[in-house]
Prior knowledge:
Blueprint: H1 11-19, H2 21-27, H3 33-36, H4 49-68, H5 75-86, E1 93-99, E2 105-113, H6 123-132, E3 137-143, H7 153-167, E4 172-180, E5 183-186
Parallel strand pairs: 3-4
Antiparallel strand pairs: 1-2, 1-3, 4-5
Helix pairs in contact: 1-2, 6-7
Amino acid sequence: xxxxxxxxIPTEVLLAALIGxxxxxxxxxxxxxxxxxxxxxxxxxxxxxxxxxxxxxxxxVAEGLKKRGEEFCSPVNVKQYLQLAFAGQGHESFVVxxxxxxxxxxxxxxxxxxxxxxxxxxxxxxxKRALHWNAASVIFAHNxxxxxxxxxxADMQLTATLTKVLAVIDVTVLDHFVVAGSMVASFAExxxx
Length: 193
């Protein structure tokens, strides 16, 4: 089946197909972000059609990457996946992508969730999960809800610590991404690893 692009269809029409014309007219103010923002975990009764669609898209991308065995050595693949994973998230969280020896995705987990501005990350837990998944390498990612894509000094120190700790068990850190809306910064591309 061929995928068709619907870029010619106005945003209002696409929204109306999901949530109805009346709700679209009442809520859409030219920005999609408010429709996808979630503070904390959404319960099944709070799950809107758009939040469900976002989560289904994230799962579809992950499923496709696992099924095809697509390599995660391409920053483009990783960035696209992470943009979906963090879309509209109003709190900071830390995600680990566990990869096999062929750099294919084994599992993606969010072991740590924080507040608007920070997340506590515990290296011991990362080591335990890497061993659990029998990972050969990992990719880290976290988001900055503030919209600032630049890695902080704390981000760089954490990455250095995790790289040293994981090296002891022969797990390689391939990259650490910072996601801020549609912008994504790669530590590897910036020479920070």
